[in-house]
C-alpha cells in the first residue's frame, strides 16, 4: 500500500515509517521543512512539504499524490507538557489538523485514516481498579481545565469515524517512552525532572510497540473502531523515572511536594499524581494480532538503555 503520514519524523513517526517500508509499503511523509525532508529521504521515504494547519497549502503539496492510507501522528510536543498552555497547539492539531488531513485523504484517494489518540481521553483522574476497555466513555468533560484537551481528543476521533468513504481508526496510545530515553536521562542529570512521593498507576507503551500497532492498524484495522495500545502493566510516573535512572546511571529523581507541582505545572501534576487508570489491550491483541514486545516498562527501559549504551559506545 501507499501510505501518507503526517508526523513521520518524530520519536514515534520514524519507527512507523521504518516498519512500513520494511513491510513493503511505500511511504510519503508530510513535513514542514527541509530537515524533515532530509530525514524522510534518508529512510528511503518520499516527502512533501506543508503545514497541516494550512489546508490550501496541504492540498497543493499533495496534489498528484496517490495513497491508500493516511496516518496522523501529529503533536506539537517537543518535551513533556507541564502546563495546559503546552497542550493547546496539540489540541489544534487534533481538531483543525485532523480536518485538514481528512481533506487531503479524500484528495489523494485514501480509503483508510489512522489517527493518533490517547488513553487520557478516558479522563484525567482516578478511574478506579477495573481495566478500561474501548467501550468506556471517551472525551467526556469533567468540569475542570482538562476539558479542552478531552474535547480535542473526542473531536479528533469523531472526525475520523464520521469521514464519508474513509475507514477511520483511532489508536489510543498510553504514555510513550523508549526512544526519548537519552533526553530523559539528561533531564535527570541536570535535575530538571522531579517527581512526587506518591502517584497513580499510568498506562505506558514503548515507541517501538506503538509503531508495530500502528502498522497492524494500517493492515488490519477496522473502520469506526478504537484500539487501546498499551503495555501489559501500568506503573507510576515516579517508578518509571526511578527505572530510567537505575538503567542509565543517572541520579534518582528528586521528590517535590505535590502542592508545588500542582501550582507550577498543573498538567504535569496530573501525570505525576492525579491520574490513575488500568487499561486493557485485549482488543488490539485480538483484532490487530498485535502484542507488546516490551510487556512492562521495566523491560522496555532496560532494552532502550542497552540500545543507548551500544549507540554511544560505537
From TrEMBL:
PANTHER family assigned to the protein according to its UniProt record, in alphabetical order: NAD(P)-BINDING DOMAIN-CONTAINING PROTEIN-RELATED, PROTEIN YEEZ
Domain of life: Bacteria
Gene Ontology terms: cellular component: cytoplasm
Protein name as catalogued: NAD(P)-dependent oxidoreductase
Domain NAD-dependent epimerase/dehydratase: 3-229
Coiled coil regions, renumbered to chain: none
GO molecular function: aldehyde dehydrogenase (NAD+) activity
Pfam families: Epimerase
UniProt xrefs under InterPro entries: Epimerase_deHydtase, NAD(P)-bd_dom_sf, NAD(P)-dependent_oxidoreduct
